[in-house]
Amino acid sequence: MNYPADPGLDDEVQQSEAWFRSTLRTLVELPTVSPGATDDREILPGLLAAKEILESIGAKAELVGTRGTPTMVAQLRHPEARAHVVVYNHLDVQPADGATWKSGHPFRFDVEDHPERTFLYRGRGATDDKGPALCAVRGAKLAIDRGAKIDVTFVWESEEEIGSPHFTDVLTARKDALMADAVIVSDTIWPTADQPAISTGLRGALHATMSLRTAGKEAHSGLVGGVARNPIKELAALATAIDNASFWHAGAAAPDEDEIASFLASGFDPDYFMHAHDLHHVTTRDPLEMMLRIWARPTFELHGLAGGYAGRGTKTIVPDAAELKCSFRLVPDQDPMAIGDSLVAFVRTANPQVEVKLAGSFRPYRANTHGVVHRAIHDALQAVTGRCPVTVREGGSIGAVPMIARELGIPVHFLPLSLPDHGYHAPNEYFDWRQAKIGIGSFARVFKTLAG
Amino acid sequence: MNYPADPGLDDEVQQSEAWFRSTLRTLVELPTVSPGATDDREILPGLLAAKEILESIGAKAELVGTRGTPTMVAQLRHPEARAHVVVYNHLDVQPADGATWKSGHPFRFDVEDHPERTFLYRGRGATDDKGPALCAVRGAKLAIDRGAKIDVTFVWESEEEIGSPHFTDVLTARKDALMADAVIVSDTIWPTADQPAISTGLRGALHATMSLRTAGKEAHSGLVGGVARNPIKELAALATAIDNASFWHAGAAAPDEDEIASFLASGFDPDYFMHAHDLHHVTTRDPLEMMLRIWARPTFELHGLAGGYAGRGTKTIVPDAAELKCSFRLVPDQDPMAIGDSLVAFVRTANPQVEVKLAGSFRPYRANTHGVVHRAIHDALQAVTGRCPVTVREGGSIGAVPMIARELGIPVHFLPLSLPDHGYHAPNEYFDWRQAKIGIGSFARVFKTLAG
Predict the structure, then answer these.
(1) How far is A121 from chain B (nearest CA, A)?
(2) What is the mean pLDDT of residues B180-195?
(3) How many domains does chain A have?
(4) Whether B225 and B306 share a structural domain
(5) What ipTM, to 2 d.p.?
(6) Hey, is the C-beta of A104 within 8 angstroms of any chain B C-beta?
(7) A112 to chain B, closest Cα gap in Å
(8) FRET pair for B367, CA 20 to 30 Å: which of A193, A210, A421, B135?
């Protein structure tokens, strides 16, 4: 089923730019950096502004307390609703260092003209995830104004960037309000700028630190070098052994032929990918192999090493201790708990003095690609963009998604709106009006379909 | 030849404590942290105080300028001198962090009573190398006062801790004044607290950084992990490969049977060694194997890694760049230049994008153990301590030593006075009066012998 053209709706989407720009400005300019990096209370003004935005379209909004920072839950109810959709987004953003931003001000909202995208909306959180969140709000408003009989519940979490450690509190506290026919998440990306795509899976993750103390204090490398154990050297060897080990590949399901065909049809462009992420060197330039590696295979990454001397010049010491921060990305059907157990066992054998701390995990997720909701999203994107969307996967993780699927038993679907060039987590992050129009129009159509 | 007892000298040594304590206090309380860590000019008050101390015993002292900070050269001349000895020490000290010192004040001189050592003199630089330097000064004064016809030239460098980068300037500028029969260096240590020892070799060193940039900015490990190259992971693998490689063992001469026998006679005590350096875990506990590893075999050490995220919590990024600080300790007859070339070639093959920077090197050094100077030191230590000194090696490096041997062609000998428990480079560093007495008495006897 394809949508008929709907010029009235398209006009109203087009006329939404002033509202969209002003509302996005409000949300971007109230910094909502993830808890942990700042005082938790600093996130409240942004949450309260979000609540007001949802109230302004007629929703009953509240901040639901958790053991961490609150989640805004806003219920837009129709007396004759024929369906209920939960839209999940998040209000928290990655920390931003002004020194790496062209403007010097990550939390000042700047609008730039752009030949293909009309406007670029620049500021931390513009694409991850405030812009997409507002697309769903505007889409719901337009759909309901045009007669769609649907209940929409907006769930805007404030701890997504740190792995949603308290999100189950929200699921428990508002279970009744959240029991919907479907959950839609827009916090994923198209693989290229001009090919609409629907994500059908998320990687999971397992975070760990590995630390080793070999002495009570650092020592002179001349006096002790050769006899003192060097914790940085041993952690480097351990990381190399883990990288070469097979335990963390266990349970990874290879994509089937249909999915491979879909990847190949996605228009994934190695040059665009490298440019978007500013990668100078990559592990492969074969497009399919690249897609498989970022979407469908586990990885082991080292994020940083603490300990020893990393300042100017050098210091000829054998360090007393070091800590390696690392994580695995995991794919369906890997079990983070089982991989964690294997990691602990591997390290215990390889270097018994190393202490492994597992620091949180997310399950991988695979979406249903055959139901009515997937079809509605597919047709909406096609109607709005004029192009047939491809199905791809997502290399990142959204902690809340497997929690929702597991706790509420509701299928989660994706309506991706961001682009690689938008710069998720990167300096100079932006969203753009072309993608916002696609988002508003698509959400409105999806709501209309599901209500109909 | 053993010395006859010399009770007059011993009395004068015993009466030197007030002078020694007061002079060491002056030098310790004028912080002379190595250049680079602080403003170069901060080292001048300490150098001027040293000059005054040498002038007070009748030497003609001057600060010899270099491209870096000056070296104090003080000539104590005898009209009928029969020999000329240069004594090399250094005035610069390692940086010290007050937070890690029991007193909180590394540059406040504290004296503690001690049952076997009478007094401990605590403060940064007390044992490395200000206390031993003053032993030679006092020893020369006593020897000359008691009739020794000898010229002694004191050379106190101020850049030893950073590898003596400008010391050849001093050798060039004062070549005539430095052309001596022998050079004696006391900046080495006994392997245990009660066994006098003479160092017969120094390890050399080769410093390097290895850096890798794979992207223009850090990236989200979900979006790019698997395709983006992770510079920390690659440097860890490279370091592990280097550690397992053989190139940096090339040219290492194994100690002969006599030297092994001497090591075995040294009383090296694994427990004392571990306690002195606060090592919880070591690579071996076999005493001979430990000695071989710290004195007679090369090592490869990692000192620190810059890049990525090492703060609180974690940050799921693939870093854009990383730099590993490392060094090799080298032994006779290894050539640091050749090892450096091999390192560059190894890295070029293993990971061509890694940039290696060689950051200075010292040649290893082997002392002559059969000449008159060695014998004089041996007999002096035996006369003063009542124990036959053993010959051992030194795991550390003293940049100036191979320079002196090479540039001036004068043999360098060691008269070690420090102990492992003194804490070279460590918090709460100290020297002690028992070792000072041994030093003063031994230097006096050596000067007397060489003059005789």
Answers:
(1) 21
(2) 94
(3) 2
(4) yes
(5) 0.89
(6) no
(7) 23
(8) B135
